[in-house]
Amino acid sequence: MGHTVICVDKDESKIRELQASRPTLYEDGLNDLFIKKCHEGKLSFTSCMKEGVSQADVVIIAVGTPSKYQSEAPDLQFLYQAADEIAAYLRDYTVIAIKSTVPVGTGDKIEQRISQIAPQCDFDVVSLPEFLREGFALHDFLHPDRIVVGTESERARNVIRRMYAPLLKETRILEVTRRSSEVIKYAANAFLAVKIHYINEIADFCEKVGAEISEVTMGMGSDPRIGSRFLCPGPGYGGSCFPKDTKALVYMAEKANADMTLVRATIDGNERRSTMVAKKILKEIKDVPRPKIAILGLAFKGGTDDCRESPAIKIVLQLLNEDVIVKVYDPKAMLNARKLLGERVEYAKDAYEAITDADVTAILTDWSEFTNIDWGKAAHLVHRKIVVDCRNIVHIQDIKQKRYKLRRIGGKD
After folding, report:
1. In which element (H, E) is residue 218 found?
2. Positions marked active-site
C-alpha cells in the first residue's frame, strides 16, 4: 500500500533468514511479494527496537499470546515486554496498535505501562484485531470483509484510516471502543470453532442414522442465516488461534462470572475428536498384525505449514500408542512435523511413497494434492485398498471404481 515497514524480532536467527530474503513460513504467493518488497526497499528486518520504533507513525504489536502452561489463561509476558521496550524509544505522536489477540482490558494496561515508563510521550493505544486465515492471509489482508479499530481517540482513528486508505474503497472500517474490539476477536474465533464442532457432531449423527453429511450441509448452507462456510466435517480444529482463544474466552468468562457453556462444550468435544478419529482408522485394521498406516497431511489445514495444535499430529500420536508402523507425508509441513514427531514415524518424499505397502491410508489435511491422487496407480502400491478420508475430499466414484473400501466423516459406507 506504499508504506515503509520495519519488522522487529528478538529471534536473531529468524531475522538473519528474513534479511537474506528467505521467508520463515509458507503461504502460496508470499515468497514473490516478499522478495519484491525487500528489493524495493519498502520492507526491512532488524532485532533493534530503537531502529524500528523511533521514526514510526504506527507501531504494531503482533507477538504471540499462547496459553500459559497447564492453564487456559493467555500468557501476556511477550506483549508486556514489547510494550515496555517500545516505550523507551517513542518520539513524536505514535499510534500503538495491538494486533495480538488479548484479553479484555489489556489495552488499558498497556497504556498505563507506557505512561509510567515514558510519561512525556504523546501516544494512543488502539486495538486492531486481524481476521486472516492461515494459508490465505495475503488475500484476506488485501480483500478484507471488515477492518475493526478499537479506540476512543479520534486522532488515532484518523491515523488508522490513513494507513488502510487504499483498502477502504472496497471495505468498511468498524470504529468501536477498545474493549469491544478486544471482545470481537475472541467472539468471532469462538463462534467459528463452535460451528466446526457442531458440524462434526452432525456428521457423527449422520453416520449413525445412514444420512449423507454432504447433502445435509448443502441444505444447511443454503440458508443465508447459517451460510456454507465452516460446515466441513473433519478431525477437529487446530492451529495457533482457535484452541487458545476458545480457552481464553472461557477463562475470562469465569473471571467475570459469566456463562460460556457452549464454548466449553466445544473445547471438550474437540479434544476428544482426535481419539475418535484414531479409533476410526484403527477399526479398519483391527485384525492386521503390526499394520502399516499411511498418513497424508500433517499441517492443521491445507495451505500452510503450521502444525501447531494440528489434529493430524494429535491423531498420529494416538496411533503410535498402538503396535503400528506409521509413515507420513505433507506437501509443506514435514519440517515442522518432524520437530513434533521426531523419529517415531517414517517420512515419505511424496504421497505415493507414503502409501506404498500401507494397510490403510488416512487423509488428515485438505491439500488439493490429495484430492488428485491417482488411485489406479496407488492400487499397485498399497497392501490393502482401504482409505479413511477424514476431510471428505476424494472423488467417491473414482475411488470406488478402483474397488477401494472408503470410509469418510459423516458419509454412508
Report:
1. helix 213-221
2. 241
**Which class is domain 48-176?**
alpha beta
Cβ pair 386, 404 in contact under 8 A: yes
> Which sequence spans correspond to the domains of the chain?
48-176, 185-268, 273-408
CATH topology agreement for domains 185-268 and 273-408: no
Q: Among 1.10.1040.10, 3.30.70.1530, 1.10.3720.10, 1.10.1840.10, what is the CATH number of 185-268?
A: 1.10.1040.10
Asked if pLDDT for residue 134 goes beyond 90, the answer is no
Task: Round the average pLDDT of the chain to a whole number and report it.
Answer: 95
Cell numbers that stand for 358 in this block: 500401507
Question: Could you report the per-residue pLDDT of 14-56, keeping only the tens digit for each?
Answer: 999 999 999 998 898 999 999 999 999 999 999 999 999 998 9
The sign of the CA dihedral 30, 333, 235, 246 is: negative
Question: In whole angstroms, what separates CA 131 from the centre of its chain?
Answer: 11
Q: Distance (Å, rounded) from C-alpha 94 to C-alpha 294?
A: 53
In whole angstroms, give the CA distance from residue 105 to residue 111.
10
* DSSP summary character for residue 285: T
Cell numbers that stand for 181 in this block: 474490539
Under a CB-based contact definition with an 8 Å cutoff, are residues 174 and 161 in contact?
no
Q: Count how many residues are written for the chain.
A: 413
Please state, as a whole number, how many other Cβ atoms lie within 10 Å of the Cβ of residue 259.
10
CATH number for the domain formed by residue range(s) 273-408? 3.40.50.720
Q: Classify each residue of 47-83 as buried b or exposed e, where b means 16 or more C-beta atoms within 10 Å of its C-beta.
A: bebeebbeebebbbbebebbbbeeebebebeebeebb
